[in-house]
Design goal:
The protein has 220 residues and is an alpha+beta fold. 29% of the residues lie in helices and 31% in strands.
Length: 220
């Protein structure tokens, strides 16, 4: 998908019962052919967790990267730096943010997007929405579901934890011109969309929020 759909080809709720989101200010993917990063989210349970957790006794996630892999090594380093980190909570929040951003961008809801995105990222979204509106175009997006949400990469960069999440989602995207004619997409064709979002957080900070630092739509 280009412009309209690359922007919605994004690369942060069905609320996850095991946690609440303290605040969503996070994510986006790539929908206009340019990469853009939203801001942050922080699960309440994670923010309220005790600072010291026995890592050996903590429940391991089904999304754990393969033992001995670079991602597994990175994840161990993140947990050593931040004992409150919970992979399932993190991935649940990222998935929720993905859904929110996709829908808000498609509907042109800048009021919803603004608190969720970093200022420069919001600028990209707002400009794309304004262009669409000035052209009289209407974008319809339905997020049918997720095929996969998992960890693609994990690393520590100084005190900053950097986690990349890969989303494989099923979407229906349709862009109509001001004359009502279909410019791109289909009203009934479901397409697979792959997005990768990288989140960063300073593990020394008392702020539990994760910031979306980069997005990428890999070629398939």
């Amino acid at each position: 998908m280009n412009d309209g759909f690359h922007f919605l080809d994004i690369v942060f709720f069905a609320m996850v019962a095991v946690f609440l989101v303290l605040r969503l200010r996070s994510v986006l993917g790539k929908r206009t052919g340019t990469e853009r990063p939203p801001e942050r989210w922080a699960p309440a349970d994670e923010a309220k967790s005790a600072k010291v957790i026995d890592l050996d006794s903590r429940r391991r996630s089904v999304f754990e990267p393969a033992a001995g892999s670079a991602a597994a090594t990175g994840l161990d380093a993140v947990r050593a730096a931040d004992a409150t980190f919970d992979l399932d909570v993190f991935l649940g929040g990222a998935r929720a943010a993905f859904e929110m951003i996709v829908q808000a961008f498609a509907s042109g809801d800048k009021a919803t997007l603004k608190p969720l995105l970093a200022p420069d990222v919001f600028g990209h979204f707002a400009a794309a929405i304004d262009t669409r509106l000035s052209n009289g175009e209407i974008l319809k997006t339905e997020l049918v579901g997720f095929r996969k949400v998992d960890l693609a990469d994990v690393r520590m960069e100084g005190s900053f934890a950097s986690l990349t999440v890969r989303f494989v989602s099923e979407q229906i995207n349709l862009l109509r011109g001001k004359d009502g004619q279909i410019i791109e997409g289909s009203a009934d064709r479901v397409v697979d969309v792959i997005d990768e979002w990288t989140f960063r957080r300073d593990t020394r900070s008392s702020d539990p929020n994760w910031a979306l630092a980069a997005t990428h739509s890999p070629e398939v």
